Amino acid sequence: MNSTWLIIDLASLLTVAALTGFLIPQILLIAFKKKLFDEPDERKIHTLPIPRLGGIAFMPVILFTIMLSIGIGLLYNYEWLRSIPVDQIKEGVFLACGGLSLFIVGIADDLIGVRYRAKFTVQIFAAALLVVSNLIFNEFHGLFGLQETNIIFAIALTIILIVFITNAINLIDGIDGLASGLSLIACLVYGIFLFDNQIFLFSQIAFCLFAALASFFAFNVFGDATKRKKIFMGDTGTLTVGIIISALALRLANEPDRAGGYNFAVVAFAPLLIPCLDVVRVYLHRLRNHTNPFLPDKNHIHHKLLAAGLHQRVAMITIVSFSAALSALNIWLSLYINITFILLGDIFLWVGLNIWLSRRISMRRTKASA
Fold first, then answer.
1. FRET pair for 53, CA 20 to 30 Å: which of 14, 29, 154, 345?
2. Rounded to an integer, what distance in angstroms lies between the CA atom of residue 123 and that of residue 308?
3. Which residues contact 204 (CB under 8 A, 6 or more apart)?
4. pTM of the model
5. Mean pLDDT of the chain
6. What does the alpha-carbon distance between residue 201 and residue 62 come to, in Å, rounded to a whole number?
7. Angle at 278 between CA 184 and CA 194, to 5 degrees
8. Tens of pLDDT along 175-218?
9. Cβ of 348: how many Cβ atoms within 10 Å?
10. Collapsed DSSP state (helix, strand, coil) of residue 158
11. What is the CA radius of gyration of the chain?
């Protein structure tokens, strides 16, 4: 059965990559014809009007590919379909509903703008749909000595986590390739571990999202804006990616740990450390400066790296590489070290790096003004 699903995942990955690669140039044509741009301003880094509708390709292509594979399986009565438990199908269906909800809100936000309160409301609704499917984070895997928790607390925590992760992906999307690069790492980790644990439907979803992001990444990072080949994913993309990644992480975190094996809570959340820790730091920074914590600014980690003198692409590669290395280190350490110490070590490292980076920026500005 594993070999059959490997073929399905590979076929799905190639299908999504091809369809996304075909659709994005069509979206670019429409965006330029209708003048649907992300206009530059003092807060943004780009200097030319660039379409921000790349994320429109993600959800339709992923749903089409997965539904097509299931349809073919039903048509020919393939045995591999019976290996999908009803619980996974239920979770997948509610994920599709939640994803489509955010997909619609994202399109509206990219085209006409949506107030952050309205976006939060729909995010909570989408998170509640995942909770209804019983995709609930109720196993702490030893974090702070906790294992299972009260179901009411677990439901509330799950909704908070989904909304938090979704916004973390949305807010980290500040320079070319950053949100998609970090999400590519997460999808690869999730796809491998979900497949290894025979959670095949969700591994297929992970590899489909990986393929969509890889195709988008090529246009976003290597596309030439002067030749109308560059595109942003916009809120349509970040919200869609955020809800899917949240579901993948929760699905993996719900797996019971094995004696001598990886801690699945670490595996689930290690690829999300950079965007999540960055959101917490920026949120606290805004509160300390008495500014609205929900309004955008230029205090994210990529802004700090740019202020320290790094080129945009170098900053992106630095953050993505650091995330990949930190994820691998965390997952490996989970074989030997308690999850609590791993988390505390991550926080200590993150705080230390930000203090060092702030001092470097301060020294650079002092030299520039001298």
1. 14
2. 34
3. 5, 8, 9, 12, 66, 69
4. 0.93
5. 90
6. 12
7. 35
8. 999 999 999 999 999 999 999 999 999 999 999 999 999 999 99
9. 10
10. helix
11. 20
